[in-house]
Request: fold
Amino acid sequence: MSNNLCDIAVLGMAVMGKNLALNIADNDYKVAIYNRTTSKAIAAAEENPEQNLSLFVTLEELVANLKRPRKLLLMVKAGAAVDKLIESLLPLLDEGDIIMDGGNSHFQDTQRRFEELQQHGIQYLGVGVSGGEEGARRGPAIMPGGSKAAYDAVADIFEAISAKVNDNEACEAYMGSGGAGHYVKMVHNGIEYADMEIIAEIYSLLKANGYSNLEIADVFENWDKGDLSSYLSEITVDILREKDLENPEDDLLDDIESQVGADYRAVGADNESEFLLDHILDISEQKGTGKWTNQEGLELHVDLSILYSGLNARYMSAEKTLRVKASEILPAGVDAENALGKQNIDIEELGNAFLLARLIAYAQGFALYKSASKAYGWDLDYKSIAATFRGGCIIRSKLLVPIMEAYDKNPDLDNLLLADNFEAEISQGITALRKLVSTASLAGVAIPAFSSALAYYDSLRAARSQANMISAQRDYFGAHTYRRTDRDGVYHHEWNDETAE
Ligand code: NBP
Reply:
């Protein structure tokens, strides 16, 4: 009888759950599948008859058909659905059974569930999974956190299904206790927002300076052969070369029309273009993990300006009608004739600025890891995080290899930019970054991620900052006190007898 029991259950047969279940089954595990709406689970099983999938209609049947300790991977919508499903499962499980949440849950929810389930003797893992549908099916990056004993019990499955790099190195690793896994995944997404924005800004700047879509694709393709190689650059090349669809889906267009108004939709677009990209509305959506990352930056006092630029750019993009209106009112204040043109762009320098901006985005993300590790007592392993990102996930890039090396040399590095193996990237990139920010500024093209990268860099290298003025102002209007450079202690100065408060 026990030979027929399943190794693991996957609950939730939407895009991610179905593809992960198939991936696990590919690796010779017997997978029990379940979906609240049974028809979707039936469809998943019928579409894949050759796979090692066993469908169960009720949670009772599902649980009864699992090997012990039972292993249940929840792949349902993040939020209330996870709590509801755990609540339904709890009476059916025994001490030592393992629940894993592979969705994009907020790390604090994961921490709470981890602690609550510990009281019931249930082992809990919050599992960050990156790579979208294709990653789930062929090999995602996996970032589990929570019970270490539970991780040890499922590590062989994660290792088998994860993306592999080099000579079969698995892109998965235990990240730490409680919500550590979901935290690592959350910040991954924050870095993803930044990297996407950096690429979009290069596209926008090149386009404004007269480059065609195909020329921009060639630029990214050439960069991708060297140190700038990354998944996001690769897909950018494909996107730039994609021709327009012959039959746009009318129902989708109607939906967008109700958001922004038909008159505004195509303003600024090249309506004659043969390329799909030129017909895509310039409003980008977001699902929340980028926002959570930035909220954590605020909470833990970490400068995430490039990551925040990526998020803000999406918020600003949603203001389409306002932007169209403002474009007619606000002067650019530039001599457009001189400011724009291919002669203003040096592609090699642009590539150097790109690499440095990407490095600074990683530096900000990893600075958040460092603060979080201390604040939440996780003992995060930064080298292992970088290693996990090398395959399967959206931010996989060649730059992760020197990042790993930097943390290998010094696991407690203060800031990635201070690692000596980035001296070349920094010395080649910094002047290029300055020129890029000036060129874009003189052309009136917004490149907030690059501008933030430069401001972060210069703020970081300022041995004496402007904060003495802020402290003086605070003491002036609010008697908030200040410290001195020449002696210890806290001081207040009577700046002006008429000062209120
Ligand atoms: P969705 O996030 O769209 O969730 C749909 C699934 O949740 C369906 O199976 C649905 O069942 C189930 N569900 C809901 Br909604 N409420 C439920 C409840 N109360 N009890 C039981 N099941 C419930 O699915 P997804 O896009 O596959 O993503 C799954 C998770 O993975 C999410 O947390 C997502 O953020 C994360 N993720 C997604 C991606 C991606 O590229 N899509 C990448 C990485 C991570 P039903 O069929 O009965 O409605």
Summary: Residues 12-17, 35-37, 40, 75-78, 81, 84-85, 103-104, 129, 132-133 surround NBP (CB under 6 Å). The two ends are 79 Å apart (CA to CA).
